Amino acid sequence: MNIKLNGTEQSVADGASVGTLVSQLTGRSIGPDGQAADGLKLGVAVARNAEVVPRSQWHATALADGDDVELVTAVQGG
Amino acid sequence: MTGMNETTLNQAPGAPAAAAPTDQFVVDGVTLGSRLIMGTGGAPSLDGLGAALVASGTELTTVAMRRYSPAETGSLFQLLADHNIRVLPNTAGCFTARDAVLTAELAREALETDWVKLEVIADEHTLLPDAVELVEATEQLVARGFKVFAYTNDDPVLALRLENLGATAVMPLGAPIGTGLGILNPHNIELIVARASVPVVLDAGIGTASDAALAMELGCDAVLLATAVTRAQDPALMGEAFKHAVLAGRLAKKAGRIPRREHALASSAMEGRAEFL
Predict the structure, then answer these.
(1) Structure pTM?
(2) ipTM of the prediction
(3) How remote is the C-alpha of B216 from its chain's centroid?
(4) B65 close contact with A: CB closer than 8 A
């Protein structure tokens, strides 16, 4: 299926969860609570169709075809 | 500055002039060792930014929320953690209450803090706060449990409105973001301070150290700045300058300045002068 990730069309495996996507993009393994398995802070957040998905729900939230996903992190700023 | 009247505004008669070491900045129950809040925007390199932050002595620093890019992650987060600097995420770039609330929600998830510097701007040319959207966003964020540090115009009426809506701190601008024009309406800043029961942080417009000292002399609880340090020719040196400026301004405010006078007032006694024939 196809989703839009940070404004760009992207293909993901059918049935993939938000957790799977975050793990793929960050290259980190993510536990069931949405925290990185390595114990360090992930520092990212996800909005799906303009609603925040809490990290505790990442694994339980399945992506659907056509979803609009924003993955954000902290950068330098005023 | 002429015509300002520090003796009638925001002066607490009989208030003890606290000594510097115990004069801590407390916001939302958190004690910060510095009254200088730094922004991280505008720094050409992370190394340079780190040096400037350390030199400034700041313990609270803003960050923006942007799309994740695998190429450039981790380091800013790590830099702040390494120096034990608290993070204050902002909603920079938001034009509507809806976008600001969503951005704040993302920041809370990503950074695990309910503090947010709420910035809702009207247009890219002035970067001035949009008062209507700002009020709307403050209301929504407070209802959702956020600690709102509201970036606002230098409008005493609006500042009080934001406080009454539950803002944790109000942050009036000295001048538009990035202009370095200093404090364009010191009288309004004094009025905001005089009527506020929450911390007042002078935010935006600071150009050089004396601007920050003035903000503190006007009674602000802290100063927030970014460009003035990150785009200075020597950011670390300027960071250090601001550390001293904020402290000096705070001490001067505590010490109580002399009133302005129209005519000279001799400080040496006229009596007992030698007379030369």
Answers:
(1) 0.87
(2) 0.92
(3) 9
(4) yes
